[in-house]
Structure formats: C-alpha cells, structure tokens
Amino acid sequence: MTTSQPRVYDLIVYGDEVPGVLALVAAAREVYRRQRRYPRTLLMLKGLSTDGIGGHLVRGRLAYLDRSHVSPALRQQHGLATFGEPAALYREFLERSGVVSIGLDWQKAGAALRQMLAEVSADLVSLVNIATVRKNPADGTLREIVLERGEVYAARQFIDATVNAELATAAQVPKVDGFGTMGLPNATLPVTLTFETEGLTVTRLRQIEASYIKRLTDVKDKAAQSYLMMAAGQDASLAKLWRSQMVDANGNPRTMVVGQDFIDVRCRALSVFYHASRGKRMDLQASGAVLDVPNIALLPGGRLSWNALLCHVDGAEANALARNGARPSPRILTEMEVVGRWGRAIGATAVTPAKELYIRYAGNITDAIAPLSGAQMLAGGVPEPEALGSFGYHFDVRGGIAGLGDRATARGYRETLQFALPVFNYGIGHAQVKSVPNLAVVSPASAYVGVAGAAGRIVELNVGVGQGIGIAAAIALVDNRPLKGVTNREVRQVLSTTGRLPKRFGRADGDQARLQRFEQAVVPRELYA
Q: What burial class does residue 126 get, using C-beta atoms within 10 Å of its C-beta: 0-12 exposed, 13-18 middle, 19+ buried?
C-alpha cells in the first residue's frame, strides 16, 4: 500500500452517528466563539455520503426516536417539558429536522446535519476503512489515520463516533465486545433493519390490529388460538399470558395509541399473526429473528417507519456488521423479504428497508477517565456541580441478554433483575480515553459499565455527551492541551456562559444499592470501580 502525504486537520471525527456529527459542530462553533475562525475539521463516514449523513438515524432510517423519560412529578418540580430538557444542540437538530415530538424524517435529518456541517466549513470523506493508525510513542497521542486506500489524515484531536469504537480499537484502546462489562462478551442486543411502508394508512392498520385482538382474545376462535400457540412455541402458559396482555384491567382492547407523529403499539397481536404466517416461534434465540411489538413513526406522504424486525447476533457478529458499514447480512435480507410480503398482504403498496442496520450495541471501551455504571446512574450520575445535563431512560435490553440470569445466579445474586428507571446527570468522563490523551469515544461504546449501556446507548443522551466533548475538544485546541485533561467543570462553564446549560434533575433512587450488589456480582472485578 502506497500512502499519500498527510492531510492535516485540527479535529477529526471518525464515524457519522449523530452524536459525533454534533460534537464536531459544537467544537467548531466554540473555537469560532473564542478565535473568530473555524478550525479545520473532517468527518469520516463508513457509509456513502450520498446515501445521507447521520448514521443509523439517517441511513438506518430509525425514525421513532427514543426520548428522555421524566416522571410528571419531576416535570412539575423542575418546570420541564415532556422529555425534560435535552442538550441545546439536540434541540436545534430536532427543530431543523421538523420533529414534532418523536417522529424523525431521515431525509430532513440528513439535510439538517449536512447544513450544520457546511456552516462550520467541515470537510467530508466517505467509505473509509482504517488500515492502521500512527501514535506518538512518547505520550500515546494519536497522530494519523491511514486508510486502506492509502490516504493519510492527521489531526490534533480525535473523536470516535462509531458504535463499535473502531478508531479507538485501532489505537489499541482496551475494549470488550458485547456485554463484556458483565462478563458476557458473546451476548449483545439484537440488530434491527427498519423499514418503511407506503399505502398502508393508519386507519387501516388500526382496523387490522383491532380485528386481530378480538380474534386472539376469543378462546372460541380455534384458528386464532392455534396462531397464538404457534407464535408461543406451543407453550400454553405463555400464550395465556400474551392473550391476557391484549386487554387492560377493565377488559378493553389494548389497541395502538396514535400521536401526532408516532404510533405506540401496546400488545403483540400484529406480531403474533406475522409469526403464525411465518410458521415460526416468536423467540429471538430460537428463530433468529422476530417481528417485535413495533415502534412506528408517522412520516410525510403517508409513510410509516417501523422499528420492529429484531435479528439475533452475538458480540462478534455485531462488531463484524459495524466494521462492514452496518450493511445487512444475507440472512437478515432474507427475513426482510418475508416481512415485505407480510406488509403487502395487509395493505402496503411498498415495503422499503433501510440502507443500513440499527446496531444497538457492540461493546465498550474500558479505559476512560471516569467509567459510568448502572448503579452510578441510579445514584443520580455525576455530581451536580459537574453536570452538563440530565437524562432518564429504562435499562432497556430489548430482546434480552443471553446468559445474564445464569451468570448472576452462579455468582450468588438471588434478587430480581428488574431495576428502577434511572434519571441521572451526565458529564464527559466516561467518553475521555486515558491511554490516548487526544481521543474521546462518543457512542454506546463509551465506558458504560454493567447495565449502564442499556440506557447509555440512546442517541439523545450521547448527543448531550457529544456536545460536551465537542466543547472540550475546542478548549484543548485553543489551549494546546490534551482532550483528556479538560474537565466537566470547564465545559459546564462554557455552557453556562453561552446560555446553553440545561436544567439538571438527576436524582438518587433507593434501588441503587440493589443494582450495585448485582453489578459487583457480575462485572469483572477489574472493570468495576
């Protein structure tokens, strides 16, 4: 391989997931605020820029956004909106993308990100694959990225915005695959190939679901009960449980709730009929893929965006898919063909899968300034004087974590594995790398320890962290310092000075002690602080 002369930048962001893109914007704007010039910045994409900029929210078309969960009591206490108070840069991104509450049109989102990058004069390069990196042997700082095609890119500061910490791994930052921070590197969350339907109206979908619920809850409907048993793998007790969950406490059908730009489906009726038509059990491990209870976003032109098709992968496969630009494997595309036929059978005129997979989780770095555990989240997160914002989200392990119950039991933990919803303050310490002083990882692959990754994988949180890391990178550039040496308090001062510091409302939960016992049981000792 013949390498070229280095192309030199102040800041390189490797990977175009939204937190990384907005971290670049935050860095460039802060340098401009201080010096009235934009730094030389570069965004490196694994995918093709003509397919959109914005990772799994844009090329992966994940239109149903996961938002911060804040109780009515906390909202009243702190004067918060429905989703709390996200980072200023995330609010700007949503406004530019035309989001009403939850539904994100990937086309508008991609255009908004591209415009924001253009405004700070950022360069782009796509279809990148790392051949090697070059570091300073004296202090471990990252100097250059060498691509497989021979191009060389140098910078003073670097941000890794990939789901698998690809740049950090190339720079020899310690990382575990899957849920390795709980001793389960082969276990990870399923990947999703989202898809859009056209021609299937909300009215029609509601009618279909209502008829399915009516049939599945009628024990005299033998055909429907056989469908239910097939989806339940002939487990009568599971079929009975699913049937009971299709009505509320008053016996009313748990039909879908339709909002301004989203649909919340509240029971398994659609999924049961899909799996019955598929002739497969609705079990991720047994069947390899399931059409889960869907999250549906309502998009312009009558399009419905479905986050529903869960595909089983192990830790190694999740990483391999991420390295391959998140392109769906032949196995996943085969399942998608079946989903397409099902969608057309219930009234869709077109069923279009996304360009890329939504890879929820592919492991974590273990070499951060301040790793963040699930117990720390339940304790309220970073101390308030250091807090850059607050976020709330369930420890949501959609599809489950294979082997976790057995590991917990084997290590003497005997309590329930259900934990309270954490509402916590966040900073940037879990994203700052110790061994590579000018590198940060802003993604689900940051140093989330134990069950923290189940909440830490959410884009809204990582944009808040990314905004902080971007400001820290700007401080490092202007002051000629290592990125790892910039503190939460310094970043917070910038946010406060510029009127962008959101309200902080992290709070401790009594469940924290039980979660700490659990994590101390299952997390390898060297990873748990």
A: middle
Q: What is the pLDDT of residue 495?
A: 98
Q: What is the DSSP string of 231-285?
A: HTTT-HHHHHHHHHTTB-TTS-B-PPEE-SSEEE--SSHHHHHHHHHHT--S-HH
How many C-beta atoms lie closer than 10 Å to residue 223's C-beta? 9
* DSSP character at residue 166: H
Distance of CA 22 to the CA centre of its chain: 15
Residue 487 CA to residue 472 CA, distance in Å, equals: 8
Task: Let me know: does 167 contact 439? Beta carbons within 8 Å.
Answer: yes
Kindly state the helix (H) or strand (E) to which residue 436 belongs, with its residue range: none
What amino acid is encoded at 210 in this protein? A
What does the longest C-alpha to C-alpha distance in the chain come to? 76
In terms of Cα–Cα distance, which of 330, 58, 314, 279 is closest to 191? 314
Contact at 8 Å (CB) between 187 and 315?
A: yes
Q: Which residue has the tokens 């209870």?
A: 293
Quote the tokens at residue 342: 């099902």
Per-residue model confidence (pLDDT) at position 1: 60
Instruction: Enter the tokens of residue 1.
Output: 């391989």
DSSP code, position 422: P
Alpha helix (H) ranges present in 346-427? 374-378, 404-410
pLDDT tens digits for 336-359? 999 999 999 999 999 999 999 999
pLDDT < 50 stretches in the chain: none
pLDDT for position 201: 97
- At 37, is the secondary structure helix, strand, or coil? coil
430's tokens: 């879990």
Q: Domain coordinates of the chain in residue numbers?
A: 191-359
Burial letters for 196-220: b for 16+ Cβ neighbours within 10 Å, e otherwise?
A: bbeebeeeebeebbeebbebbbeee
In whole angstroms, give the CA distance from residue 99 to residue 387. 27
| pLDDT tens digits, 216-230 | 999 999 999 999 999
In contact, 506 and 56? CB cutoff 8 Å: no
pTM over 0.90: yes
What's the number of CA atoms in the CB half-sphere (13 Å) around residue 446? 37
The angle formed by the CA atoms of residues 330, 160 and 505, to the nearest 5 degrees, is 105
Helix, strand or coil, per DSSP, at residue 481:
coil
pLDDT at residue 529, rounded to an integer = 62
CA 261 to each of CA 104, 482, 494, 513, 527: distance values in angstroms, whole numbers, following the listed order = 8, 43, 34, 39, 41
The string of DSSP letters for 39-102 reads: --EEEE-SS-GGG-SSHHHHTS---B-------HHHHHHHT-BTTB---HHHHHHHHHTT-SSS
The token pair at 201 is 């109206």
Cβ atoms of residues 162 and 16 within 8 Å: no
Cα(first)–Cα(last) distance of the chain, in Å?
Answer: 43
Amino acid at 50: T
pLDDT of residue 17: 97
Q: Are 470 and 485 in contact (CB under 8 A)?
A: no
- Eight-state DSSP code of residue 483: G
